[in-house]
Amino acid sequence: MAGSRFLVVSVLVVGLCSALAQGLGVNWGTMASHPLPPKIVVQLLKDNGIDKVKIFDADSSTMKALAGSDIEVMVAIPNNMLRTMTDYGAARDWVKTNVTRYHFEGGVNIKYVAVGNEPFLSSYNGSFLNVTFPALKNIQNALNDAGVGGSIKATVPLNADVYNSPESNPVPSAGRFRTDISDLMTEIVQFLNQSGAPFTVNIYPFLSLYGNPNFPVEFAFFDGGSDPVVDNGIQYTNVFDANFDTLVSALKGVGLGDLPIIVGEVGWPTDGDKNAKASYAQRFYDGLLKRLVANHGTPLRPNQYIEVYLFSLIDEDAKSIEPGNFERHWGVLKYDGQPKYNMDLSGQGQAKTLVPTKDVEYLPKKWCVFDPNGGGNVSTLGDQITFACTWSDCTALGYGSTCNGLDGNGNASFAFNMYYQVQNHQELSCNFQGLATETTQDPSTAGCNFTIQIATSAADAPMKPLLVVFMMYAYVMALLLL
């Protein structure tokens, strides 16, 4: 009998140690030239015990794959649809098509509707200031009228730049909403409180480091080593807590300091910048997950679990790099769903990796490399590299990135191969005016991987219109350069 009790206790302990950190979800983006099939991604989520996912649209193939999985979903309305959603009829139709259509036993477990994505970014120059709040109200009202508003809430994922502390008193307790949108934010927060929806914010310690050369590196992580920021006797040892509590203070300032907060995006990229590397990402997530599983909370909200969506699940090679070359490397998994580094979602800090994708099909093991003896005009090499990198992803070649150590020939080969893979090994995509050749010998080095792309985009995941144009234009240009 004692042995049986010991066995039961042991099983419970193992189960607790392997459970996912409470409140943990992931972002699933699809801005890739060759996105993984949705069914494979959903199985990947299930294999890793991830039961919450945030997506950036309500694409039918994604929704069909999520049906019956019981994974909790935050669907989204892209920024370019916000103006349309200011018309209640359009909002009602959107809810009918993208929410209630899937709201049945065995359907999609939709929990939230994200109305826009960071629509108040300063870089948007106010483009969405007048349409976001009306769209938010219309979507929530449409959810209510459809009879699902009690369980499905509309929210607006906002960048952390919607609040700050004054330069004269740069501490969390002085947090306030940005002066140019203070009245608007107050209205939005009051509406969220009235409708029972959370405030959703994206917090990126990496961006604090990236945007400020004087930012203390250690303050971006959770394991100490940095001089604390002292605020009324409270010591802040990391920028995540300081940022989160700045928001809490801003909410207190409008009388809603207890409004639930979801961290819609938080993560660390692994390439495209000197601080975007796997070792830093592993360290960041290790600290974050340990805190989440311990319900550590923050100084202004202690001993509380924080609902968090990691950003992101998989690398996306077609994202805009206007914010930085790192934008295509946020995934905790590579483009094909393979792990990048050790990651223990239970928050126990064990040396284990995520469960990788299964049944992924790849293009044949062929690469395109620079051929100095192919008869081409070497004086045009720079132009050929520029063309290849314009229509593929060469961000790994940048300063501080994984392939930055290649020589000139290696740079050319890397660029040519990335273009060749994006073009699905089409015959004319490895020529570059006689400067390239196909090979079956892997040109990868110890630190730089030459990709073999997956072979699924055409059959399993319809490309976004922009990507279709991208592919067609690139192919025509390749013909002109022959």
Automatic annotation (TrEMBL):
It is a lipid-anchor; GPI-anchor. One of its GO terms (cellular component) is side of membrane. Residues 366-450 form the X8 domain. InterPro entries: GH, Glyco_hydro_17, Glyco_hydro_17_plant, X8. One of its GO terms (biological process) is carbohydrate metabolic process. It is found in: Cell membrane. It catalyses: Hydrolysis of (1->3)-beta-D-glucosidic linkages in (1->3)-beta-D-glucans. It is an enzyme of class 3 (hydrolase). GO terms for molecular function: glucan endo-1,3-beta-D-glucosidase activity. Keywords: Cell membrane, Disulfide bond, Glycoprotein, Glycosidase, GPI-anchor, Hydrolase, Lipoprotein, Membrane, Plant defense, Signal. Residues 1-21 form the signal peptide. Its EC number is 3.2.1.39. Its main location: membrane. SUPFAM superfamilies: (Trans)glycosidases. Belongs to the glycosyl hydrolase 17 family. PANTHER family: GLUCAN ENDO-1,3-BETA-GLUCOSIDASE BG1-RELATED-RELATED. This is glucan endo-1,3-beta-D-glucosidase. It comes from Musa acuminata subsp. malaccensis.
